[in-house]
């Protein structure tokens, strides 16, 4: 499975999640103070906190992969991710509470879900804003670094973009794929994520090296092995087997380039 920007942020968020769980274990909210000991509360809140947090990240990554929701503001997307994560989260609360504290019937979900959804949405939005802030800070730092590198001369030196490509990927560029604030570089040797917007990468590469075929995809010249058609849109099959959709917006341009029959 491809690494999502949301999951790349796990090392930075985990201490905060564990810290919040410890605070809740010590304070004993939701009537847990008198019904369970400190160790039990610690296990309970750490388990629930980590499970729901990972579910929020998974839902956020899934929503970002859809073209419609991927364009939503980060607050709206993370709020929806919080609501979705609250559904399994409510069931996990009931199971863990029954196991660690006292038996809790599943009908209690009708009372637990609204509280869980509210808290999860608040935390989800805060997590989303935290990730957004880190991404913007890293992007600003990367732009400053690239700006400090001398521009290539007119003799055909390697474009700035290739200085961003991890050496292990080589120079056989096949495609670029936008993943939220990150860019996935696909080459003949594999793929990896870098922090860069697709439009900035295309500006560095120039129009002669390939063309954009989708809001989230760019394909290099010479990278296409075959063309297929599914029920909705043409699909470019690259030399490494990667399947790239061609959206309606870019279809005419792709046809003019001779990439589609």
What does this structure look like?
The chain is an alpha+beta fold and 261 residues long. It contains 8 helices and 8 strands. It has 2 domains: 5-145, no CATH class; 160-256, LytTr DNA-binding domain (OB fold (Dihydrolipoamide Acetyltransferase, E2P)), CATH 2.40.50. The strands form 2 sheets. The chain has a 5-stranded antiparallel sheet with strand order 3-2-1-5-4. A 3-stranded antiparallel sheet has the order 6-7-8, with no helix packed on it. Helix 2 (10-27) packs antiparallel against helix 3, helix 3 (38-65) runs antiparallel to helix 5 (74-100) and helix 5 (74-100) crosses helix 6 (109-148). The chain is elongated.
What's the quick description here?
With 261 residues, the chain is α+β, with helices and mostly antiparallel strands. 53% of the residues lie in helices and 16% in strands. The strands form two sheets. The chain has a five-stranded antiparallel beta sheet. It has a three-stranded antiparallel beta sheet with strand order 6-7-8, with no helix packed on it.
């Amino acid at each position: 499975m491809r690494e999502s920007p949301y999951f790349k942020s796990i090392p930075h968020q985990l201490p905060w999640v564990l810290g919040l769980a410890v605070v809740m274990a010590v304070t004993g909210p939701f009537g847990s103070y008198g019904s369970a000991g400190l160790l039990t509360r610690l296990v309970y809140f750490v388990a629930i906190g980590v499970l729901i947090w990972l579910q929020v990240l998974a839902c956020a990554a899934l929503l970002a992969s859809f073209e419609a929701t991927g364009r939503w503001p980060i607050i709206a997307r993370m709020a929806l991710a919080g609501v979705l994560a609250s559904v399994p989260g409510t069931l996990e609360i009931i199971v863990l509470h029954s196991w660690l504290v006292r038996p809790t019937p599943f009908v209690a979900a009708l009372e637990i879900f609204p509280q869980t959804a509210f808290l999860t949405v608040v935390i989800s939005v805060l997590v989303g804003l935290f990730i957004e802030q880190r991404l913007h800070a890293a992007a600003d730092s990367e732009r400053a670094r690239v700006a400090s590198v001398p521009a290539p001369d007119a003799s055909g030196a390697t474009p700035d973009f290739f200085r961003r490509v991890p050496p292990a990927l080589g120079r056989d560029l096949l495609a670029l794929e936008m993943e939220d604030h990150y860019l996935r570089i696909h080459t003949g040797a594999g793929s990896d994520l870098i922090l860069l917007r697709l439009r900035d990468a295309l500006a560095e590469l120039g129009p002669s090296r390939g063309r954009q075929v989708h809001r989230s995809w760019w394909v290099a010249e010479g990278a296409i092995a075959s063309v297929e058609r599914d029920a909705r849109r043409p699909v470019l099959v690259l030399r490494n087997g990667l399947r790239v959709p061609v959206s309606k917006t870019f279809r005419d341009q792709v046809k003019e380039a001779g990439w589609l029959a």
